Amino acid sequence: MSGAIPPSELSRMIKSRPLAGGPVVIEASAEERAALAARFGLGAVEALRAEVSLEQRPRAIRATGRLRAAIQQSCAISGEDFPVAIDEPIDLRFVEEGQRPATEAEEIELEADDCDEIGFSGEMFDLGEAVAQTLGLAIDPYAEGPNADAARKAAGIVQEGEQLGPLADLLAGLKKP
Length: 177
Known about the structure:
There is one protein chain. This protein is 23% helix and 34% strand. By secondary structure, it is an alpha+beta fold.
């Protein structure tokens, strides 16, 4: 089953040649933030801003910068929404699809923490979708809000070492010297 890829909620098409001279600023509108919240299962995306510098490299375009966002995320324990601030580095490489691979004689410059590669075809690439994906990866799926401990206690879930009952007393007695 194959279908068309749905359009990005944060599409920002950038011409690959010539590249923009200064940093590219991507700021999501209210409609884009609502669509991103729905995409990532968030209570809200209250703010999203990325500042990205683009650099032409051999067979690629390097994108580096920073993503800052304010979101409302559900607590993994209580289910209540709580505010989360996201501040993530952006380090991507846009690689034109269909380029001939490097030969063994050609030198490829890799850095210690090599960046993610995103393929593109034609004369443009979608920097906004890359920013949206960076946001998605920055969201902690197991984030706990301020009421997580109270929700655990109300559900009868105790922390390790807080067990009660005759078996817990017996085990505690075994641990004493």
